[in-house]
Fold POP1 protein.
Amino acid sequence: KQAEKAVHQKKEQSKTKCRKARRRHINLVAEFNHRQRKNIWLETHIWHAKRFHMVKKWGYCLGNSPTEKSYRACYRAMTKQCLLQDLSYYCCLELKGKENELLKQLARICSIDTGLTFQDASCLSGRFEGSLNLYRADRYPEDMLGPVTFIWKPRDGSENRQLWIWVHPALKQDILRELKAIFQCSEPEEICISEPVTTLIQEEKQVEVVTSLGNKRKKEDKEGEKAVPVKKIIGDGTRDPFQSYSWIARTTGITISDRSMEILRYRLIGPLSHSILTETLKAASVQTV
């Protein structure tokens, strides 16, 4: 019986692909898409997964603590060089509409007694990022929602403005619900219709076709080019992929959009942060029609 069991197990293991086949790029992308069905990966997930203990929080897979002693290296980078942190798991809420209407309603969920507000001149121009604490409408100093950071898009000459509010994923639903209530944005403007989640086996079947001779060839699309799977962003960690992600108020025209995982966010700490950004980023030439 033991011999038969060993032979049976050996046959099952022989069906597994070799490491070279499993590490092919075309299979890796399909596998990564399959593993993100419950917890979304950040763009830097692979780098962190090799060096950090990963935890699953707020619908994301995040690096919690390093696997080796790197605290002194991080401290040295913060004090003498530059340390970069990936904060892309923070949720971005975008508001569009007339400036007067935006400021009028936003004043209900914050107070000048706590410091800066959305109406601060330095922040309203779009040159600086502001931070404040949000409360439920007309409930200050009670019913605090949580801290947020915001930045205005610089003026372009029109009365319509664009505002980005960055919130922690644990506070997103409460703050989004309060924003929709004060602006009366109840009608969805756009609905996210994503492709159904396919399994790893289905992804491989779509990419490779097994011929009768046993040879494998890559599937070609309509244009005749070799099909290459792309990474699928299935909503984000705090939103169901089949829910609407943009709402509009018919009376005022204010639009609230959920831009989570669409705008990446990084934090640079250290005396060399500005010089690194200067060497990395290059100003694009503005072309006017």
